[in-house]
Amino acid sequence: METKPRLLNVLDWVSLVLFVIATGMVFFYAPTEAIMGQVQRVFYFHVATAWVGLLGFIAAGLAGIGYLRTNNLKWDNASLAAVEISLIFFAVAIVMGSIWARPSWGTYWTWEPRLTTATVTELIYAAYLLLRQGLEDPERRARFSAVYTILGCISVPITFVSIRLFRTIHPVVIGNADAAAQGGFSMTPAMFQTMMFSVVTFSVIFVALLWHRIRLGNLADKVEQLRLKLAQ
Amino acid sequence: MIYVRKLVKRFGLKAVLKGLDFQVEEGEFVALLGPNGAGKTTFLRILATLSRPSMGAIQVAGYQLPVQAAAVRRRLGVVSHLPLLYGDLTAEENLQFFARMYDLADSNRRISEVLGMVGLENRRRDLVRTFSRGMQQRLAIGRAVLHDPDVMLFDEPHTGLDQDACTMLDNVLREVAARGRTVVMTSHDLARVGALASRFDVLSRGVIAASIRRDQIEPDQILAFYRQTLEA
Amino acid sequence: MKPESVVSRTQETSESGPLAGARAFVRATFAVVWKDLAAEMRSRELISAMLVFALLVLFIFNFALELDPKTRSTVTAGVLWVTFTFAGTLGLNRSMAMEKDRGCLDGLLLTPVDRSAIYFGKMIGNLIFMFLVEAIVFPAYTVLYSANLFNLGLVFVVFLGSIGYIAMGTLLSAMAVQTRTRDILLPILLFPLTIPILIAAVKASAGFLAADPLPEILSWINLMVVYDVVFIAAAFMVFDYVVEE
Q1: Could you say which of A15, A197, B101, C101 has the lowest number of CB atoms within 10 Å?
Q2: Which of B207, B198, B155 is nearest to B174 (CA)?
Q3: Nearest to A131 by CA among C144, C178, C93
Q4: Residues of A in Cβ contact (< 8 Å) with C227
Q5: CB nearest to B11's CB, from A137, A221, A224
Q6: Model confidence pLDDT, tens digit, residues B42-74
Q7: Cα distance between residue A16 and residue A1, in whole Å
Q8: What is the pLDDT along chain C (245 residues), one digit of tens a residue?
Q9: Any A CB within 8 A of C203 CB
């Protein structure tokens, strides 16, 4: 039995601590926003999870390319782990976005670029998982998954651009002075710091979760190998 | 002609071929025997360039696999237990299609020649889906020899054929082999194969367990030899 | 144990130069297209299934949506494209299933042609079938809903949109056909990835039908062209991985 690497242990604790601090910052350090009030605090984790989810998606694509080049199943493991975790991060981001949207736009949902793209990406994740379910042979499964993530990575930016050609009501937060008009707001330094800190926190959490998930996958493979040996 | 050294084929974590060595000189007719699931079809598919080896060195007709697979295909003719023919096209059209794909000169003459050899001259304008299984197999062999390959691979070609069809098939096989081609054929039918092959190899537990030439054994002893090898 | 008699040969070519390779590629592609067309002309399975399905979908839309003259113009583009995508999925599934079921795909892979030629051949074949169905849906829609669809811009948009959709669809159907959940999986894989081209196609179609000024529609057409080019190139690169074992 492999024991949990020490670095991972450290990472887990660091994640926990960062998360507590980030939560504290969100509720106590960042000032209450003038127009939206307390609901605005959702913003920090919303942006953080969305960003990190996006990076996870790209990581999955890169891991896919890694598999196609090396034929080493460990890359496939990494790709699967990245997709699973990004799936959840994006889901959290979308839900938080909805919580924000209700008081500011009067609706939980709207067909605008970022939200729709995020949903499309979730659908791609779901399709990815269903694709894997339909394949038994590990090598073929890894190959097809890699191809699909690559196609997804190409398609998502194009999707974003295409929906952006519609008019948007999603707040353009960074660099927008006329806050009230778009439902956005300009950020004070404290807010900016809170946001960046949240992004860092969730990045660390993502890496920790990814590591755990990859370890899980590798251990499962080992078990399978041992089982096969026994069966002979 | 065929030279295989330490061939390993894994499906995920399970190894089907475990360091297989195999060698065939030009003009030999090798019968590959073995129990179900031994890996005969897997092995043949690798030789046919339809599957990639996990490890090992393979050379067919002077070309390295898998890197020079495209060049090998030109010299290979493959017949499996599926006919690989298009039911909605006539016999002639099927051969025309493959003649084009193999980029053959003077295809009409060659097609007539091949149809004559497999005894389907008078059915050339009929749709393949109206053919009996025996006729489809004969046409499949025709397709396989169309481009005059040096090496022929047969995967259990007698499957599903009645006695008459089998006899006809044997005649065709003999004629095919008579032209000095190298043949590897997997089969369950030891009696039939005994009359055709110049060598018998037994594939068991992922390697070639035994090999014996026709002049070293009496035809009625082949079954005993086979059983003995499997029990060892 | 290596025998001396077997000498490793380097790749030999019957003709030399890149032009020969290109000609062989084109020849193989059109051989595959010809084969699909010839087979389809005999059985007419694909076309009839796609056609019946498309007409059924049109009918159902009549009951499901309020297609009075005023709302009709805004909804036509959407109805058309939904019909095309669903019928298209049917054709894509059957086209690949035909190859997979009799092991014909192996027969194709055994030939010494570039795998991409197989992709292109199947893609062009699928495209032709889709165009045929679209050519029949147009007059059908015109008759059923007394709408005027004979608009050159619209035809152009349908052309571009179909290319992108089928390019992606052929690639993904080659994947889906090798899974257990074959038929259900293709739409699930295909739709999220084709959303950009479908949005652009619907917006551009609606634009042409409403006789919007050309500069407005142009950005959608640009998007479609970009999508088509990018994904045909991508398919070119990854098709090998999808069919080889």
Answers
A1: C101
A2: B198
A3: C178
A4: 158
A5: A137
A6: 899 999 888 888 888 898 888 888 888 888 888
A7: 26
A8: 333 333 333 333 345 566 777 888 898 999 999 999 998 888 888 888 888 988 898 888 877 776 666 666 668 888 889 999 999 999 998 888 888 877 788 888 888 888 889 999 999 999 999 999 999 888 888 887 777 777 888 899 999 999 999 999 999 999 998 888 888 899 999 999 998 899 889 888 888 887 778 877 888 898 899 999 999 999 999 998 888 87
A9: yes
The pLDDT assigned to C67 comes to 62
- The residues that bridge with B208 in the sheet, in sequence order, are B203
Query: Which whole-number Å values give the CA distances from C139 to B86, B103, C146, C149, in the listed order?
Result: 34, 42, 10, 8
Give me the DSSP letters along A14-36: HHHHHHHHHHHIIIIISPPBTTT
Question: What's the mean per-residue pLDDT of chain B?
Answer: 85
Asked if A162 has any chain C CB less than 8 Å from its own CB, the reply is yes
Interface of B with C (CB under 8 A): 1, 3, 5, 21, 23, 45, 48-52, 59, 62-64, 68, 70-71, 73-74, 76, 78, 80, 82-89, 93, 97-98, 100-103, 127, 143
For residues C243 and A89, give the distance between their C-alpha atoms in angstroms, rounded to a whole number.
33
Task: Tell me the torsion sign for CA atoms B51, B52, B56, B60.
Answer: positive
SS3 for B34-73, per residue? CCCCCCHHHHHHHHCCCCCCCEEEEEECCEEECCCHHHHH
Chain A: residue nearest B55 by CA? A71
| From B50, B87, B103, residue closest to C109, measured CB to CB | B50
Under 8 Å between Cβ of C84 and C76: no
Q: Which residue has the tokens 């042409």?
A: C208
Q: Which site among C168, C238, C243 would you substitute to test the A interface, given the most A Cβ atoms closer than 10 Å to its Cβ?
A: C238
Q: How many CB atoms lie within 10 A of CB B225?
A: 18
Q: What is the pLDDT of residues B180-194, one digit of tens each?
A: 788 899 887 777 787
CA-CA-CA-CA torsion sign (B179, B182, B11, C235): negative
pTM: 0.85
Q: Which helix (H) or strand (E) holds B143?
A: helix B133-145
| Contact: B93, C38; criterion CB under 8 Å | yes
Residue labelled with tokens 């807010």: A191
Bond into B219 cis (ω within 30): no
Distance from CA of A124 to the nearest CA of B (A): 25
In chain A, residues with a C-beta closer than 8 Å to the C-beta of B13 are 138, 221, 224-225, 228
